[in-house]
């Protein structure tokens, strides 16, 4: 095991916005950075900002950002002492974490054994139950074959949801509403899980129709000290992909919050967890259920930074390289309200114009700059617009204003959809769950179509 220490050089095994985010904190900490990039990302912002950059392969992820051997070789060649996996790609891959440490490098995250335990959703559910966290009623273990699936469903009734034991992001997930479609969906979920995570294991849970999706941000030093940085509400989703996050959650009351915090703190303390992590719950009425643990920093971490004042990347680096936290253990004080809108590309292209909003309490995390290319090869998220206000109403007003100021030309984005949601009375009421987008999708899609049509007409009439 590596002796924990401060570091002077770090490789970031990721791209785009999260790589830019990590580089900026490293620069403030006096840590030199090595960026990695595929051939289509040669001119990406993270490559320009890093102290060094190494090409690790062609555009396909399997040959570049998922090529662990090339990444580790780049770290060793450039004298790095640690590797930060960012989000997605290899960030929750225990094999990669193990490879990193076997080469004498520090992995910025928990141990491979912890990732393995918590990355398997079946094992994670059983671990959570040991610490008194309620779990959604379900199969209690992997389901193999239609006979086992029918047996698991019998006490649950329909609808149920089939989930991949490994991975996430909506992959290997199928909702089943009748016995007639159970066998087909079981096979589809298993095949999709195998294709995406090299693991076809699935399990079954009761499907909650419209719960809230709530998560707690955790930091831990690997020695038993745990900090809880409040919760985030991630209920606004499209096809299981988050669109808007906020902190705190409008649907979590004090007693529920305390129970979540108590169980989460005990779990992470007992595991001697190291670094940043997130424990996710589904909330339905007065009940909440453990869903999973993400053993990495989350895309939506800036909303927590806004309400706590913490630099989560800095804390993560300190936890993993020095075994300490600056924020201190316990429950952090939450100040005001923060929101984040994910700005997704609906088409690839070159950015011809970029105007970023400003003013008090406004932040835009992105890899975009005028003249850069947005390739079609990777995740569609191009940036995150984050605002902070004294109240939820104030944060919504600030987000509406910031969205109106944000100008991105050269590609199509979901900006009109986000603005439509922010102005929707149901969203403003705070009384919504994960089915929200499905209920209003028609109006949101029309908003985007109207914006695209207006832009097309303007371009045709331009001199």
List the helices and strands and how they pair.
Blueprint: E1 9-12, H1 16-29, E2 32-38, H2 45-49, E3 52-57, H3 68-77, E4 82-84, H4 94-102, E5 106-107, H5 112-119, H6 121-130, H7 146-153, E6 160-164, E7 174-176, H8 182-197, E8 202-206, E9 212-221, E10 226-238, E11 241-247, H9 254-270, E12 274-284, E13 287-294, H10 301-308, H11 312-322, E14 330-331, E15 337-344, E16 349-350, E17 353-355, E18 362-366, E19 373-374, E20 381-389, H12 392-405, E21 407-409, H13 415-423, H14 425-429, H15 436-461
Parallel strand pairs: 1-2, 1-4, 2-3, 4-5, 10-14
Antiparallel strand pairs: 6-7, 6-8, 9-10, 9-12, 10-11, 11-15, 12-13, 15-20, 16-19, 17-21, 18-20
Explained architecture:
The model has no long low-confidence stretch (mean pLDDT 93). The protein has 3 domains: 9-108, Rossmann fold; 137-206, Dna Ligase, domain 1 (2-Layer Sandwich); 212-458, D-amino Acid Aminotransferase, Chain A, domain 1, CATH 3.30.470. The chain starts with 8 loop residues before the first strand and ends with a helix. The protein has helices spanning 16-29, 45-49, 68-77, 94-102, 112-119, 121-130, 146-153, 182-197, 254-270, 301-308, 312-322, 392-405, 415-423, 425-429, 436-461, and strands spanning 9-12, 32-38, 52-57, 82-84, 106-107, 160-164, 174-176, 202-206, 212-221, 226-238, 241-247, 274-284, 287-294, 330-331, 337-344, 349-350, 353-355, 362-366, 373-374, 381-389, 407-409. It contains 15 helices and 21 strands. The relative contact order is 0.11. It is globular. The longest helix is centred in the C-terminal third of the chain and has 26 residues, at 436-461.
């Amino acid at each position: 095991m590596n002796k924990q220490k401060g570091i002077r050089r770090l490789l970031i095994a990721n791209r785009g916005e999260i790589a830019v985010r990590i580089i900026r904190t490293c620069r403030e900490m006096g840590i030199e950075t090595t960026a990695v990039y595929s051939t289509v990302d040669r001119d990406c912002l993270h490559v320009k900002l890093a102290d060094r950059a190494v090409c690790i392969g062609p555009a396909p992820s399997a040959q570049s950002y998922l090529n662990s051997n090339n990444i580790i070789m780049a770290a060793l060649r450039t004298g790095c002492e640690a590797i930060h996996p960012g989000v997605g790609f290899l960030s929750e891959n225990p094999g990669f974490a193990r490879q990193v440490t076997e080469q004498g490098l520090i992995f910025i995250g928990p141990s491979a054994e912890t990732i393995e335990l918590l990355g398997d959703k079946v094992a994670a559910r059983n671990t959570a139950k040991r610490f008194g966290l309620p779990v959604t009623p379900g199969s209690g273990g992997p389901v193999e074959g239609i006979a086992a699936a029918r047996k698991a469903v019998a006490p649950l009734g329909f609808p149920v949801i089939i989930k991949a034991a490994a991975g996430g992001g909506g992959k290997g997930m199928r909702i089943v509403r009748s016995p007639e479609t159970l066998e087909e969906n079981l096979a589809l979920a298993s095949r999709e899980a195998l294709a995406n995570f090299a693991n076809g294991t699935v399990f079954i849970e009761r499907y909650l129709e419209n719960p809230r999706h709530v998560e707690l941000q955790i930091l831990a030093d690997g020695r038993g000290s745990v900090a809880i940085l409040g919760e985030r509400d991630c209920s606004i989703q499209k096809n299981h992909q988050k669109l808007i996050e906020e902190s705190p959650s409008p649907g979590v009351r004090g007693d529920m919050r305390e129970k979540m915090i108590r169980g989460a703190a005990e779990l992470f303390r007992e595991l001697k967890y190291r670094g940043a992590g997130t424990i996710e719950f589904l909330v339905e009425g007065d009940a909440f259920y453990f869903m999973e643990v993400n053993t990495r920093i989350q895309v939506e971490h800036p909303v927590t930074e806004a309400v706590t004042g913490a630099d989560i990347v800095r804390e993560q680096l300190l936890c993993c390289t020095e075994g300490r936290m600056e924020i201190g253990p316990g429950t952090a004080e939450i100040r005001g309200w923060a929101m984040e809108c994910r700005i997704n590309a609906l088409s690839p292209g070159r950015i011809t114009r970029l105007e970023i909003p400003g003013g008090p309490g406004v932040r835009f995390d992105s890899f975009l700059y005028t003249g850069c290319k947005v390739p079609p090869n990777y995740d569609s998220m191009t940036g995150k617009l984050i605002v902070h206000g004294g109240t939820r109403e104030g944060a919504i007003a600030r987000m509406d204003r910031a969205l109106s100021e944000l100008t991105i030309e050269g590609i199509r984005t979901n900006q009109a959809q986000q603005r439509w949601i922010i102005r929707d009375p149901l969203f403003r009421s705070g009384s919504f769950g994960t089915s929200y987008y499905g209920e209003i999708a028609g109006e949101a899609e029309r908003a985007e179509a109207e914006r695209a049509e207006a832009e097309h007409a303007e371009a045709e009439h331009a001199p």
